UniProtKB/TrEMBL annotation:
Domain ABC-2 type transporter transmembrane: 17-224
Signal peptide: none
UniProt key word Acetylation: no
Protein's cellular compartments: Membrane
Membrane topology of the entry: Multi-pass membrane protein
Pfam families from the UniProt entry: ABC2_membrane
UniProt keyword annotations, A-Z: Membrane, Transmembrane, Transmembrane helix
Membrane-crossing segments per the record: 31-51, 63-85, 114-134, 154-174, 181-201, 238-257
Protein source organism: Arthrobacter saudimassiliensis
Keyword Transmembrane applies: yes
Protein name, entry field: ABC-2 type transporter
Length: 267
């Protein structure tokens, strides 16, 4: 009994995605310093910026909010730098340029890069949760039954999903810029987005003007959704609308940049 063309095509796509994912994971592991730095970066931020503040670490709600902010901060960093700089460097790599000429399409390598970024971002979330649970009062709300434990895996999933607009932004930068420009531009974009999005300082201490401005940013929407998932704090429906709007807008920009680069270099 022969399989249909659609089934064979799906099987072929899955095989290509697995092959590209394996290649990209191995490529990342060949630079252990980069993997280690991206993994411990959010945890170091937690240690240096949160743990010295006893008013935060002794407050369960404030502790959970800080853990969630720095977790999505780490995901944002992994996605934006992995795509913004990684794609730009690949475009200058002769081997990567050759791979793009193969009759594979854009889907397998793009999905593979997303899976690779999510995997390493997930590894960066584990020490944040462990250190946060061991050194702050955040887990008290879970141990005393105030919050259900299913919120922890939910929060991890939300943190990874909240990286999607930054993944698309990284693609946009990577396909439009050279590697040197991408490095500078990614850094220039990353830190203002992280600060204005409330990932370094809680939005509650923002001035009214900065608070109003930050509500239109994808980083603020990702932060609010992430905090709500872990701490149970309510979030505004506008945060969901803002997150979806930025994801669609940046996703469309990434697709356009990919086609523009493909048309210029391989026509």
């Amino acid at each position: 009994m022969s399989t249909s063309p659609a089934v064979r095509n799906n099987s072929s796509q899955l095989h290509l995605i697995r092959a590209h994912t394996r290649a990209q994971v191995l490529e990342q592991l060949r630079i252990p310093v980069a993997v280690l730095s991206s993994t411990v970066f959010p945890t170091l931020a937690l240690v240096f910026f949160v743990l010295p503040q006893t008013a935060v670490t002794s407050n369960p709600v404030a502790s959970l909010m800080s853990i969630a902010q720095l977790a999505v901060f780490g995901v944002m960093s992994a996605f934006l730098f992995n795509y913004g700089i990684g794609v730009a460097e690949d475009r200058a790599n002769p081997w990567s340029s050759y791979v793009r000429t193969l009759p594979v399409g854009a889907l397998p390598p793009t999905v593979a890069r997303a899976l690779t970024a999510m995997m390493f971002a997930f590894f960066a979330l584990i020490p944040v949760l462990v250190v946060g649970a061991a050194t702050t009062a955040g887990m008290d709300l879970y141990t005393d039954g105030t919050l259900p434990w299913w919120r922890v895996p939910l929060a991890v999933a939300v943190w990874l999903v909240c990286g999607l607009p930054f993944l698309c932004l990284g693609l946009l930068i990577g396909y439009l810029c050279t590697s040197k420009v991408a490095i500078a531009l990614t850094q220039v974009v990353f830190f203002p987005l992280a600060f204005a999005g409330g990932m370094m300082l809680p939005p509650e201490i923002f001035s009214p003007g900065l608070d109003a401005f930050s509500r239109f940013l994808p980083s603020r929407a990702a932060r609010d959704l992430s905090v709500s998932a872990l701490s149970g704090e309510p979030f505004e429906p506008a945060a969901v609308a803002c997150f979806l709007a930025w994801t669609l807008l940046l996703g469309a920009g990434a697709v356009w940049a990919n086609r523009r680069d493909q048309g210029r270099r391989y026509r």
